[in-house]
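Let us practice reading a record.
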Amino acid sequence: MENNGIKDKQEHTTPIITGEAVYPLKAKAWLNRTSYTEFHRAIERQVIGQEALEDITLSIYHYIENLADKKYTNDSILLCAPSGCGKTETFRAVQRYLQQTMDWLPCYQVNMANITQAGFKGDDPSTVIKPLFRHWQTKGRAIVWIDEFDKRMFPCIASDGEDVNASILSSILTILEGCEIEDTKPDSNITRRICTSNTLFIAMGAFDYIRKGKKALNNKHTIGFDNETPEEIDHYEDITREDLYDFGGIPEVIGRFGTIINFHPLSEEAIRKIINKMSNEETYELGHIIKIEEDTIQKLIEESNSKYGVRLTKSVIHNRAMKLYKQVKKSELDESSIFILSESGDKIANRASVRSSRNSCQTHYA
């Protein structure tokens, strides 16, 4: 249409969406560019060899789908796994990925062992969701990982006969079930409320308390003339919902976890990949190639499914490499030296001598 020879200009503008309505759209945009397979593979590159990892990544992906569809749920997860088998690494991998691709969705970890009863020194139960106030996530959209959850899940009787964990769990239960928690901004009268009904909680723990209890009961019935040696604890024995009930877990708390996931021992192939990853990381940190010979690899494999898991493996590699690093610095040796870890004795070599022996032992490069 023209008016006095001038065309009417009809502007087509996209309305700006703000406030709570923007988050479902952001979730949909993330889903459109990120398939579940892509998400899982990204996490799997960091958490090696755990088949049950798929259950965690699928639950997280489904949670984001619910955010996109405004189907807010908090079907929480209980991850049972001994020390050093990938719990913390799973959290770190998910947090890193979401920070890079979905920075509006908080993903953080709190330590249940630091939470105490009201009136005692330590963190109060509201610590679990306090970071959400910084993000102004009033609807509670977040993935909250609660480490050491098993430290508070079972009765702990004080000298006066009081169960000190019961009151803590009572407050945590309210948060898990979904509630509104108020917080007043410091130096102001602004009150904020966070609703935890839309939060995905992932509680983690080793739960060796249960495994020790079950083994003690078993040994009590089996020790005799034919079996005088108590059986060792299987740190990877699955924890079931029935186990949690049998050893004093509060039914209401247990019932809030719709999914219970167990991590299992790692295969030799997976441990080799992890050792290779660790040596590459150490190479990057120290600036020297770390070469691990087969005899040391075999010893590390034997120890990796122990009570302390691959966390001990990482510590062993780091400590042995640091001793060689110290020698290089103190003796002013060639900065391009290679560190060789071997059960016959760790040593420092130059690159030329290592090239000639590549076919006889395994070398790890960054």
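A brief commentary: The domain at 268-360 is CATH 1.10.8.60 (Helicase, Ruva Protein; domain 3).
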